[in-house]
């Protein structure tokens, strides 16, 4: 497995006030939060990066002290019965066994969990305590997010308190809080080989058609759903009975094994968004990361079409997260719509009162006049 030592971090992290955000993520939420925190650093004249601990030699953590004014941040989810996520398992094992001296390492932790489970936020709490035991210096209190409540709001509240505290600690001035930093460049492909265009694959191109054993956590078997039946009646949540076709895989499912479901968004909602944005959904495009030092070159598999991105890669049915609202505000048709979106993105009492029940993204597009505001830039806003 490829692992990066401190020398392998991008060169901007070798100078100035530098922040590394490690994430322990199973479904992508902790990784998303880490990326948002990393992006935040630019607003304060700092340079940051989000990093998978599985690709970093965590025994080198003590060497962060060699970088002036450095900070290690951790966004970690608790998985199952108080366990670390798969990508944080090795780091967890190392923490349990090591007697490393982390004196001088500055850190903070935000944990993601669900209070309906007995071991709520066990990984975040353990990491916060263990780093202190090894001599590291906590510079901001542990944050805990509850997915059974409002995980996004928990994160935003913690984040809005964290950055002023960090600025005071490092002695830096905060910039305009509402400034938007463009992360991706939109590239439209007018002449492209359609065999090289992603059509919904989550990883390797044509992976649904050609699967290569052996299958494991790193190379999962992509099974089709043969039976999908609702078991309960009424209520907001659906209890579903699913049957997966694993014939030809040479694997079997045992109790306790993990299954991930890749859903497809409602085609009507996708079509409606295309109409609102006055966009040809079959245009082939790529979103390229403007940060050349980032390990993640695209937010989702590219090149692809707007239709595929909206159908398979983007969440268009849940209320949009606050970072999406901030990005949409940059394209609002008037100042009132822009102010409304920014208020909605805030964790302040005014923001909570602005709209008690936060609607789906399509409602924002309707109400704020986006159909005429950014016919060419819509994909970047939705994908950011």
UniProtKB/TrEMBL annotation:
UniProt cross-references to SUPFAM superfamilies, sorted A to Z: Flavoproteins, Riboflavin synthase domain-like
Entry cofactors: FAD; FMN
Cited InterPro entries: CysJ-like_FAD-binding, Flavdoxin-like, Flavodoxin/NO_synth, Flavoprotein-like_sf, NADPH_Cyt_P450_Rdtase_alpha, Riboflavin_synthase-like_b-brl
Residues covered by the Flavodoxin-like domain: 19-163
Top-level taxonomic group: Eukaryota
Coiled coil ranges: none
Keywords: Endoplasmic reticulum, FAD, Flavoprotein, FMN, Membrane, NADP, Oxidoreductase
MF annotations from Gene Ontology: flavin adenine dinucleotide binding; FMN binding; NADPH-hemoprotein reductase activity
GO cellular component: cytosol
GO biological process: response to hormone
Name of the molecule in the record: P450 (cytochrome) oxidoreductase a
Organism: Callorhinchus milii (Ghost shark)
